[in-house]
């Protein structure tokens, strides 16, 4: 059994009964009925609560005359998402801004959560990244169906020429499902490897300090600075990768949407 962090323990204490009953009815009974909620689900719930709390705070403080720092920050995020959507999707991109922006905010908060002591990075679990990928997959295909209709979308998947439809259709179907793998594994692998590297190098610091400075140097200025510098470097790298992967998770669904709703000429 994985180490249960404090927020997971709270959720399991409050919701173990209902959750165990629900998953049992779905045919996938929990391995431990007293602790049915794993850490990655608890971290997702925490991120959702943070997003909802931020939305309520922002709504209560919206001001055209004197916007606060949080409003300025969110305006930058919204404008960035609008520009990204407009550049990739083109005409009618406004309707997709909410979904693309929400994916980006959710992913970046999940990525950064592991920097907080006692919490974990939920996007290091394939279940979380696959769930986000499925949401993006369903969304862009539904938008394609909405734009073209069922028959029109199937024709869209068959390519521009009827003569090659028998080849293009299975390729497009496989390609679409391959996007699930691309979105989910890329994000999970980057965050998981980052966490592993931080943990491994963090555990190596005492041995490295001893090897470089000797046992008598423990507690002196240089070894202490060295011990602090290495975690800071990995934290900065974690932040950079977190934002980069969130951007990619906005960029790729935007590209998929543009391909799904594109009109044939």
Derived from helix and strand composition plus strand pairing, the structural class reads mainly alpha
Number of separate strands:
0
**H/E series, N to C?**
HHHHHHH
Helix content: over 70%
Low-confidence segments, given as residue ranges, are none
Span between termini: 56 Å
- On the 0 to 100 scale, the average pLDDT is 88
Gross morphology is globular
| Beta-strand content | under 5%
Computed Rg: 23 Å
Largest sheet: none
Distinct helical segment count = 7
**How many domains, as an integer?**
2
What does this entry look like structurally?
The protein is mainly alpha-helical and 265 residues long. The protein has two domains: 1-37, no CATH class; 41-146 and 182-261, no CATH class. The protein is 77% helix and 0% strand. The chain is built from seven helices and no strands. Helix 3 crosses helix 7 (221-261), helix 5 runs parallel beside helix 7 and helix 6 (165-213) packs antiparallel against helix 7 (221-261). The mean pLDDT is 88.
Task: Set down the secondary structure blueprint.
Blueprint: H1 6-25, H2 39-61, H3 69-89, H4 97-113, H5 126-157, H6 165-213, H7 221-261
Helix pairs in contact: 2-4, 3-7, 4-7, 5-6, 5-7, 6-7
